[in-house]
Specification:
4-stranded antiparallel sheet; alpha+beta; about 550 residues; 12 helices
């Protein structure tokens, strides 16, 4: 037979179990709004029973000794964590791409009253007006001024795209630093977690902090988490970057994930890092498109149909061309004696005559279709109001590449020839030296509907949205491509936000704190505490009665 004090010990354990449950519920309530916190629960188990020989042997002769707290367990579903992080990394990737595409769209600003397409339309309209009155200085000035607006619009757009590229690069570097910071914090937490577990305790709050960092990290990169304790590992892009309490480094002691000017040292396949690298590549594509447009406008090749008979001075021997031209897939150039003016004359069915100074004048008939080096070469084919050979309309970088075929043309460096901005009479308007000839101006205005060949800038592997077509069609193709990409990004973000929210809701149903539930649990634990206290009070009365009667 056991003594009365066994009951006191049993009741005391009940008090301790109820008190631990109340304290845990209070901890849950206090952290109901703490990011990453997981609801905790006290796991109770019976204490070992004691044998009592005085009991009948027909059943197990044991007396229970009460309850004990086995552990304080956090409620967490690792499968839902994995699903959340998988969807979160995809959301991070598409959110970064969506943001970049929206900014590109705002920069291109198409269609709009101030966009490049409207500016180009004003430019062609100015050529139309000039063709009707080639000698009008105001019409010449209008063409030059609209050309300046075209160049400035291209310059401004290119500069804004370059600024956006710099911003994306800064964001990429910032996110790389953030990833490495998270890994360092996780490694430190792992060391603390190992220390707590080594003495047999449960580091619930530390585990919550680590899971919260992993959730945030999943938005930045594609991570894979495996193992527990000393075997805990985090991988990014298939490469282990953290082992338990140690962040992996390269031979120079630097973190494995680094940014080398837009190229990551690890093959990151998700998260904002992936989105930013893809956005940079997309942006480079649109920069190349804009450069190709500027090069096509200024330097061609563009296929034109002569609106008037083109007459040029072939010199004393009749072998010179003012610019290179292509007719019936055959290129004729003044730089190659084998392809001379006489050959072009014969190919086009033109005529020749002799000037008063003995030079050969070659005339290519109206309606001939030629391929030339953009608007620049077209103007060099004609004559200004002084009867002098025309000069290129655009310059590249303030002079470099001013002729047909020289220099590197970009949207950032294209400008109107300073010769024209200083003296509009030097603007070529006719294919003959006659002062009233406006045939070249008509042909220039028709460049709007002419076929231009577009090519990616040298050294670039960007695929052009259109390799041959009108300048307007090229712009439409660029804007259309941007619209499709933007729509896809918007749809992906919308879908992924719904998926992330759905999985997070499922996680919260397991790990989230319900104030109502915790309050009802507190009442339940309070009743258990009161019951154990009542047992102690009863046993105390029994002992008092015993002592009084002995």
């Amino acid at each position: 037979m056991f003594g009365t004090f066994l009951g006191l010990e049993t009741a005391k354990r009940g008090l301790q179990a109820a008190q631990a449950s109340v304290e845990t519920a209070a901890h849950n309530i206090d952290n109901a709004n703490t990011p990453g916190y997981s609801r905790q629960r006290v796991d109770l188990t019976e204490t070992p029973a004691l044998p009592d020989p005085s009991l009948a042997s027909a059943w197990a002769g044991q007396v229970g000794t009460g309850v004990q707290v086995e552990q304080v367990q956090r409620l967490r579903d690792s499968y839902l964590d994995s699903q959340y992080r998988q969807q979160n990394q995809a959301l991070g990737q598409w959110t970064a791409e969506q943001d970049a595409l929206q900014k590109i769209s705002a920069i291109l600003n198409e269609p709009s009253d101030t966009g490049l397409s409207t500016v180009m339309q004003n430019f062609w309209n100015a050529w139309d007006k000039l063709s009707a009155n080639p000698g009008d200085l105001s019409a010449r000035t209008l063409v030059v001024q609209n050309g300046v607006t075209v160049a400035q619009t291209l310059n401004q757009t290119a500069n804004q795209l370059a600024d956006l590229a710099a911003d994306l690069q800064t964001s990429l570097q910032t996110n790389v630093n953030q990833v490495n910071s998270y890994l360092t914090q996780i490694a430190q937490l792992n060391q603390e977690i190992d220390s707590v577990q080594a003495v047999g305790d449960q580091p619930n709050d530390l585990l919550d902090q680590r899971d919260e960092l992993l959730d945030q990290l999943s938005n930045l990169a594609d991570l894979d988490v495996s193992g527990t304790g000393a075997s805990f590992q985090v991988s990014i892009g298939g490469t282990v970057v953290l082992k338990d309490g140690t962040v992996q480094t390269d031979s120079n002691g630097q973190p494995l994930l680094q940014d080398n000017g837009g190229t990551l040292t690890l093959a990151v396949n998700g998260g904002q890092l992936k989105g930013l690298t893809d956005a940079l590549a997309t942006l480079q594509g649109y920069q190349a498109d804009l450069d190709a447009f500027a090069a096509g406008l200024a330097n061609g090749p563009v296929t034109i149909t002569l609106s008037g008979a083109w007459t040029f001075d072939a010199g004393p021997s009749g072998t010179n061309l003012p610019v290179s031209v292509t007719f019936n897939n055959q290129t004729y150039t003044s730089a190659d004696p084998a392809h001379n003016a006489q050959q072009l004359l014969a190919a086009t069915g033109g005529s020749s005559s002799t000037a008063s100074n003995g030079d050969v004048l070659v005339t290519i008939p109206q309606g001939t279709t030629l391929t030339v080096g953009g608007l620049n070469a077209l103007l060099q084919m004609g004559y200004d109001s002084n009867g002098q050979q025309g000069v290129p309309f655009f310059e590249a970088g303030g002079g470099a590449g001013s002729g047909s075929g020289g220099g590197t043309w970009t949207a950032a460096n294209i400008t109107v020839n300073s010769t024209l901005t200083q003296d509009v009479t030097k603007l070529a308007t006719g294919f003959t030296p006659d002062a009233g000839d406006g045939t070249l101006a008509i042909t220039a205005s028709n460049v709007k509907s002419s076929q231009v060949q577009f090519a990616a800038p040298a050294g670039s592997s960007v695929q052009m949205p259109l390799t041959k077509g009108t300048l307007d069609a090229f712009l439409q193709a660029v804007v259309g491509q941007l619209g499709v990409q933007g729509q896809q990004a918007n749809q992906q973000v919308t879908n992924l936000q719904a998926l992330v929210q759905q999985v997070d809701t499922q996680r919260q149903s397991v790990s989230g704190v319900s104030i109502d539930e915790e309050m009802s649990d507190i009442i339940r634990f309070q009743q258990a505490y009161n019951a154990s206290a009542k047992v102690i009070s009863t046993l105390n009365e029994m002992l008092d009665e015993l002592l009084q009667n002995v």
